[in-house]
UniProtKB/TrEMBL annotation:
It holds the Pfam family SepSecS. Pathway: Aminoacyl-tRNA biosynthesis; selenocysteinyl-tRNA(Sec) biosynthesis; selenocysteinyl-tRNA(Sec) from L-seryl-tRNA(Sec) (archaeal/eukaryal route): step 2/2. Its EC number is 2.9.1.2. InterPro entries: PyrdxlP-dep_Trfase (IPR015424), PyrdxlP-dep_Trfase_major (IPR015421), Sec-tRNA_Se_transferase (IPR019872), SepSecS/SepCysS (IPR008829). The gene is sepsecs. It catalyses: O-phospho-L-seryl-tRNA(Sec) + selenophosphate + H2O = L-selenocysteinyl-tRNA(Sec) + 2 phosphate. This is O-phosphoseryl-tRNA(Sec) selenium transferase. Homotetramer formed by a catalytic dimer and a non-catalytic dimer serving as a binding platform that orients tRNASec for catalysis. Each tetramer binds the CCA ends of two tRNAs which point to the active sites of the catalytic dimer. Belongs to the SepSecS family. Substrate binds at R97, S98, Q105, R313. Its cofactor is pyridoxal 5'-phosphate. NCBIfam families: selenium_SpcS. Keywords: Cytoplasm, Protein biosynthesis, Pyridoxal phosphate, RNA-binding, Selenium, Transferase, tRNA-binding.
Length: 492
């Protein structure tokens, strides 16, 4: 209520009680005023009542919620289900206009304000996470792969002759398909094996740029966050190379916001060379539902150019989800989650190393990967690929999600390109292994339970538990199955 209504309320209820209620209301409004003034993530998280009050205030600014609204257009914010309306806090119009996802929507002042504030708060969080010189960003209602595609399509207008994207290999389908979907030809650069780690072959990247000609290359497409034993690309060196040859540089930073090492690499790359844009997922970094990403960069003009490339309006749901989450956590709450994730990484590494040793295996030495770990499975491999397949299945059925068992020699064709050694980021990695990751939100209980269940699975396989019965005499199914498993990647 406004001041006039509070004054009128004093005629109905004791003035002292009304003044107390008015003061409580002002405490909520001061938080909202500070957000509007600063456009930054609040240091301390808001209560749910403050967030709901704020969203309600935004919603009543949209035309579909005007008391006297009379809509005669084709898109008037009508919603058939009241449950759906409540789920979206009655913010129905979405964000942007037909020509620009960042444009103000005349029918929806509240939703437009939500969009602008979300982008401003997210930019602040990217800075506090380590990329201090980032100039601009926006939330896009697409996951990482399609967001990368949008970046590539925007670069097409700047480099109309280009047809290649130079890509240090990472075995993750969406980032590869993003290049294909945009209409470009990925040039796959195999990684170098250094100890246990798979690292960027800088010499091969430069040789390919020279061979193809810089003007024919759309960009270098590098990666920060990845599954061990692959580690983040050498971003500083790649950024320097891109500046030298005047080739754009797009970074896939899918779950890198939560890892200070990844963010430091981006900051340093932009300082010494060229990084045009970096893309990160909302769900992986901020624990919200899948469906959104952040496109960010150091040249505000280019980031605005990408936002204008998005055709049509867009869903406000990803923006709404991440704004609610960051207002609830506050900067201090988010930084606490980042710190806890680092602690859990150390604990997971310690526990996985001990477990590996007890089973005659070892934790692969991948110090440059700040999130993912890998444990060798040589002893299990000695029993054949069937045992590796069984381990992945056993973990999944025992509700250990996210762990990946990577066998030797798997092959996979993605959009017409054959990857040998698929999932291992290498054509010939020397051993099979199991992946585990310490991502934001992981708990001590998650670590303890996963290690306990992995230990039981390994012991069971050692005893022959879960071994498939031999096929009937004269059958060739056993040999055929083994061949199929070598050729096919394990999906867990």
């Amino acid at each position: 209520m406004n001041g006039e209504n509070f004054s009128l309320s004093e005629k109905v209820v004791s003035a002292s009680y009304i003044r107390q209620g008015s003061q409580a209301r002002r405490s909520h409004e001061q938080l909202i005023r500070r957000l509007l003034e600063q456009g930054k993530c609040p240091e301390e998280g808001w209560s749910e009542s403050t967030i709901e009050l704020f969203l309600s205030e935004l919603a009543v600014m949209d035309s579909n919620n005007f008391l006297g609204n009379c809509g005669v257009g084709e898109r008037e914010g009508r919603v058939a289900s009241s449950l759906v309306a409540r789920r979206h806090y009655r913010l129905i119009h979405g964000i942007g206009r037909s020509g620009d996802i960042a444009a103000i929507q005349p029918k929806a002042a509240g939703s437009s304000l939500l969009n602008k504030l979300t982008n401003s708060v997210v930019l602040d969080v990217l800075k506090l996470s380590g990329v201090r010189s980032v100039a601009s960003c926006f939330v896009v209602p697409m996951a990482t792969g399609m967001s990368l595609t949008l970046c590539f399509l925007t670069l097409r207008h700047r480099r109309p002759k280009a047809r290649y994207i130079v890509w240090p290999r990472i075995d993750q389908k969406s980032c590869f398909k993003a290049m294909i979907t945009a209409g470009f030809e990925p040039v796959v650069i195999q990684n170098l094996l250094e100890g246990d780690e798979l690292r960027t072959d800088l010499g091969a990247v430069e040789q390919k740029i020279q061979e193809l000609g810089p003007e024919n290359i759309l960009c270098v497409h590098s990666t920060t966050s990845c599954f061990a034993p692959r580690v983040p690309d050498r971003l500083e060196e790649l950024a320097t190379m891109c500046a030298k040859y005047d080739v754009p540089h797009i970074v896939n930073n899918a779950y890198g916001v939560q890892a200070s090492k990844c963010m430091h690499l981006i900051q340093q790359g932009a300082r010494v060379g060229r990084i045009d844009a970096f893309v990160q997922s909302l769900d992986k970094n901020f624990m919200v539902p899948v469906g959104g990403a952040i496109i960010a960069g150091f040249d505000e003009t280019f980031i605005q150019e990408i936002s204008r490339m998005y055709p049509g309006r867009a869903s406000a749901s990803p923006s709404l989800d991440v704004l609610i989450t960051l207002l609830a956590l506050g900067a201090s709450g988010y930084k606490k989650l980042l710190s806890e994730r680092k602690d859990m990484y150390s604990l997971l590494a310690q526990e996985l190393k001990a477990l590996a040793s007890s089973h005659g295996e070892r934790l692969l030495h991948t110090p440059h990967n700040p999130v993912s770990l890998a444990m060798s499975l040589d002893a299990l491999q000695a029993r054949g690929n069937t045992a590796l397949t069984q381990l992945g299945s056993m973990l999944f059925t025992r509700q250990v999600s996210g762990a990946r068992v990577v066998p030797l020699g798997a092959e996979q064709t993605v959009s017409g390109h054959l990857f040998r050694g698929f999932m291992s980021h290498s054509e010939s990695y020397p051993c099979p292994y199991l992946n585990a990751a310490s991502a934001i939100g992981i708990t001590r209980e998650d670590v303890a339970l996963s290690i306990k269940r992995l230990d039981k699975c390994l012991r069971s396989l050692k005893k022959g538990g879960g071994r498939r019965p031999p096929p009937p005499r004269g059958s060739h199914s056993r040999r055929t199955t083994a061949r199929t498993e070598i050729k096919s990647p394990l999906s867990t």
